[in-house]
Design goal:
It is built from four helices and eleven strands. The chain is an alpha+beta fold.
């Protein structure tokens, strides 16, 4: 039986598309390969890797930026269009007990971020830690440097809306140049997507498995 082709919605320049699917057993990689082919419109375009392993399409298809992340059996793919070299980053983390959250914060986060976490009530501390972690990862994955850049060099404040860019260092650019948005799935996941530039609308899709 032949599977029906996947419907790929139009991706406007003022949008970021998020696709969610299962990851286990290679399902996520297969799904993302099909989705990416649909957006780029050419199955022959190879996916290349940057210096730190970030996947990207070579020119002239590099106006489509994309990134993926997975935690447990959940995977997210983020895509956006822009000028040549446009990049987007996404990170997802499953909520599970992390006894060393504060210790990790003291080691890897900016001191004001750790102070904010310490000031939170115990039940809210893990959520705060994961909110900061996913925001940082999303920015550094969009930048293409990953964790080697230094989590403390992209510092955020915390409020009810999530993590807000506060003080960035180095060639990642200044904090006000970035958009960082939390992604809410309501099922034990914390996630964020990030890109440099103007605000965009988010559209979330689920890959049918």
């Amino acid at each position: 039986m032949t599977e029906a082709p996947l419907h790929i919605p139009p991706l406007a320049d003022d949008e970021i598309h998020i696709w969610r699917c299962r990851w286990a057993g290679g399902a996520g990689e297969r799904a993302f390969a099909g989705i990416l082919r649909g957006y780029v419109g050419d199955e022959a375009v190879p996916i290349e890797r940057g210096e730190h392993g970030k996947p990207y399409f070579p020119a002239p298809h590099d106006t489509l930026g994309f990134n993926w992340s997975h935690s447990g059996d959940v995977a997210l793919l983020a895509l956006g269009r822009g000028s040549a070299g446009f990049e987007v980053g996404v990170d997802v983390e499953a909520v599970r007990p992390r006894a060393r959250a504060l210790e990790l914060s003291q080691r890897f986060f900016a001191p004001p971020e750790t102070a904010r976490l310490q000031g939170l009530p115990e039940p809210e501390r893990l959520q705060g830690f994961l909110t900061l972690w996913t925001a940082k990862e999303a920015v550094l994955k969009a930048h293409g440097s990953g964790l080697s850049y230094g989590l403390h060099r992209v510092a955020f404040s915390l409020n009810k809306e999530g993590a807000m860019p506060e003080a960035f260092e180095g060639d990642v650019g200044v904090a006000r140049e970035w958009q960082v948005r939390p992604l809410s799935f309501g099922d034990g996941l914390v996630a964020a997507v990030a890109w440099r530039g103007e605000k965009r609308a988010l559209r979330v899709f689920t890959f049918p498995l």
